Amino acid sequence: MYAQLVKTDAARLRTLDEMDPQERAFQERIDAGEKIEPKEWMPEGYRKTLVRQISQHAHSEIVGQLPEGNWITRAPTLERKAILLAKVQDEAGHGLYLYCAAETLGISRDEMYAQLHSGKAKYSSIFNYPTLSWADIGAIGWLVDGAAIMNQVPLQRCSYGPYARAMVRICKEESFHQRQGFHIMSVLAKGSDAQKAMAQDALDRWWWPSLMMFGPSDDASVHSAQSMAWNIKQDSNDALRQKFVDQTVPQARFLGLTVPDPDLAWNEEKGGFDFGQPDWDEFYAVIAGNGPCNRERLQARKDAWDEGAWFREGLSAHARKKADRRMAQAA
Amino acid sequence: MSSEWPLWEVFIRGQHGLNHRHVGSLHAPDAEMAIHHARDVYTRRNEGVSIWVVRSADIVASAPSKKGPLFDPANSKVYRHPTFFDIPDEVGHM
Ligand SMILES: [Fe+2]
Ligand SMILES: [Fe+2]
Predict the structure, then answer these.
(1) What CATH class does B2-88 carry?
(2) Record's superkingdom (chain A) (predicted)?
(3) Which of A157, A203, B75, B77 is the most core-located residue (most Cβ within 10 A)?
(4) Which ligand is nearest to the CA of A94?
């Protein structure tokens, strides 16, 4: 998912009886499935946690354009190029929907950009891996967008209105992303030996980072429990990971590809697959800024912001000039 | 000084002769660019045939705390709904 390790500031979960009347009324509205809207009273922790979660999510959509953007000029056909361009453009849109949702909580767009550019705000670990071949574009759509869908679908019902509505728009577009990726993979998997090997290599490299997207086990995490009580998180990280594996392994088999996990085995009793754990040391290293592409990704965002400054200023100057002219005419 | 572009609220009329509906917001330096951005951000899949944009700062909203005084008075006026009146079956459709 695109928001990993979101802290809540909660030391422990409090009961309704321990809350003051205002907070208690707020919690009861959430328990009744009501939506919280901007400008309504909310606990400071709820507001802060949502700002962290939504901005992390937005940053992930924006940074997530970079690994795929790498292949727009190298797509194998004009049609694939147009499809990839549309997909990457959608991701820009997802970032914008989410930034707007976060802004309703009182943080400005410039502040969020500054937090991303300074490294203070995080984005999903998955986008710090390189896209080495065309098959990686297939693997990203199939696995990465597939994993994102797993937690974005329940978020459509989350308690904060603007976030829930942004998720509805996003979910409508994600299915296209996953299918175009799967389609790339199936063409390669049915192709020459070299193409098949390319598809397998992409699966080998993207499988574990995709499982890491759900974050480490959070069954014992007070942050996770608090986020669930606020209904801004619906499922545990392990539950979503299990769901993802159960859905994806049969698809890999359909493609004739091998999931790179020696521990993978069907467990009749639980009605799901048993599977191995990703390398969590690697995960923490990537989150801390030391993945294969962290520096490159952040630099690309900073360069885009700095090198676009003259253009943003030009548009502002033009808008001011037109407004002044209108004023002069009206006077 | 912040050079952030102002925020605009975006309303789209769908294909089917419906009202313009609020779909979200975006930043743009002026109205013309706001329409361009709205086209790219909110209508990539033929979602609309017409766009309105309005500066968020120009919207006047009712206060959440006024919810009771504003809307509660309608609760007791159930006779405003047709289902309040029983019409005998033999009268037929009404
Ligand atoms: Fe997305
Ligand atoms: Fe996507």
Answers:
(1) alpha beta
(2) Bacteria
(3) A203
(4) 1
